[in-house]
Amino acid sequence: MEDRRALNRNMFWRVIRRMVFANRGRLFVILLALGAGATVTSALLNLRVDAKRRLNSEFRLFGANVLITASEDSAGERRTLDEQFLTRLESESEVAKFAAIPYLYSVAKVAADGTARDAVVAGTHLDLLENREPGWRLRPVHASEYSASECVAGARLARQLRASPGSKLRLKSRAREEECTVAAILETGASEDDQAFVQLATAQRLSASEGQVSIVKVFVAGDSAAINRTIGALRLKFPQVRVQPVRRLTEGQAKLYGKISGVLTATVVVVLALTALCVMAAMTNIAAERKNDVGLMKAIGGSVRRVLRIFLAEAALLGLVAGLIGAAAGILLSIGLGKAVFGVAAEPRLVVYPVSVALTVIVAILAAYPLRRLANIRPASVFRGEE
Fold first, then answer.
1. Same domain, yes or no: 237 and 260
2. Do 28 and 115 lie in a common domain?
């Protein structure tokens, strides 16, 4: 019994080899169609997987996506947060990777060289502005840490006060006064251009809010689902504060990824369908050419199931070879496409390779459907030349 099975197995693969190499021209056409489909499929799938990472990185440039503020009191007025809350926030294991920056806002009269105007004074850790507010442009870039007496002036505020790096700003709020030296000019194109930024301790003294902050801006890495999960966890851990997403960023990120993912997925489906049609056309011609082979196999006792198994094995083998080559080429192609689309080369994702190969094999097997007509061939009719 074992010898018979071994003989059948050897005969099976011998027939496969003969059929694969019997018509090399048509073989090349099928391999080319499957390989091209695998290349495009692999490239698009790799871009789809990498798009989430790239979007997370791109949206990081828009700044914080989560805001933490104190809850309102019974009169509906917003309170401030204890500065120690930031330490507790950063000590949590879930938020260790957060980029958080506190702010304390107040309104004061800002004066320089005889010119004065009311402006918002934002107290924060000035050393964090350059790396935790990536969309903000500081001129000049501070080469060392900001001192306690230095500050940053918004671009419009600096123009109105005719202030420049090195100028002295005098800040007055009620009976409290502070003085600082402009170390840099900040330009964001938004409301920050009308504000003055000072060290947090300076703003606390000026507004008589020692140890307090108005808001904590946080950037949470990940997609919108990860951001919402983190917000839920923070609300459970810190019920005494308000944790809110910046809807404009989180919803925009989710919608943009959904559109990109949908377009790439639809394109993959279309490419696989076109590949299947091309292979199916080639298989139809092959079916017409192999009537005599099938008639001979059935005449010597080959069952319909075994005959179909031979042809499906041939299609799967072609799909496997084309998939292995095309998927590798597609991942390399996606690196260049990622650089052209996002400005940074896409990272190869290993999970894409087996998925692309599997899809190519499936397409090859489905495209072999025309070969089913060979199962109805009658050996006697073939030998008489009737089919």
1. no
2. no
**Position 338, amino acid:** G
Q: Do you know the residue count of the chain?
A: 387
Question: Got the DSSP string for 304-365?
Answer: HHHHHHHHHHHHHHHHHHHHHHHHHHHHHHHHHHHHHHHSSPPPP-TTHHHHHHHHHHHHHH
Task: In whole angstroms, give the CA distance from residue 325 to residue 115.
Answer: 71
Note the helical H segments in the chain.
Answer: 2-22, 24-60, 84-91, 129-132, 155-161, 200-206, 224-237, 247-289, 291-299, 304-342, 352-367, 379-383
Cα separation, 259 vs 239, in Å, equals 35
Do 219 and 259 fall within a single domain? no
Cα torsion 52, 53, 55, 60: sign: positive
Report in angstroms the alpha-carbon separations of 26 from 278, 293, 368. Answer: 12, 17, 14
Domain of 329, in residue numbers: 2-58+254-383
| 269, 44 contact by CB (below 8 A) | no
236 within domain boundaries: yes
In a domain, 249, yes or no: no
pLDDT at 15: 54
Give me the number of domains the chain comprises. Answer: 2
- E strand or H helix at 164: none
- pLDDT tens track for 215-235: 888 877 666 677 778 888 888
The predicted model gives 192-216 an average pLDDT of 92
Note the pLDDT tens digit of each residue in 85-121. Answer: 877 777 664 554 557 888 999 999 999 987 899 999 9
Per-residue pLDDT at 194: 94
Q: Does an H or E element contain 109, and which?
A: strand 99-112
Query: Does some domain include residue 248?
Result: no
49 within a domain of the structure (yes/no): yes
Taking the C-alpha atoms of residue 96 and residue 90, their distance in angstroms, rounded to an integer, is 5
Same domain, 125 and 167: yes
Task: With H, G, I as helix, E, B as strand and everything else as coil, classify residue 1.
Answer: coil
> pTM for the full model?
0.55
Together in a domain, 161 and 276: no
Distance of CA 90 to the CA centre of its chain: 26
The predicted structure's pLDDT at residue 279: 83
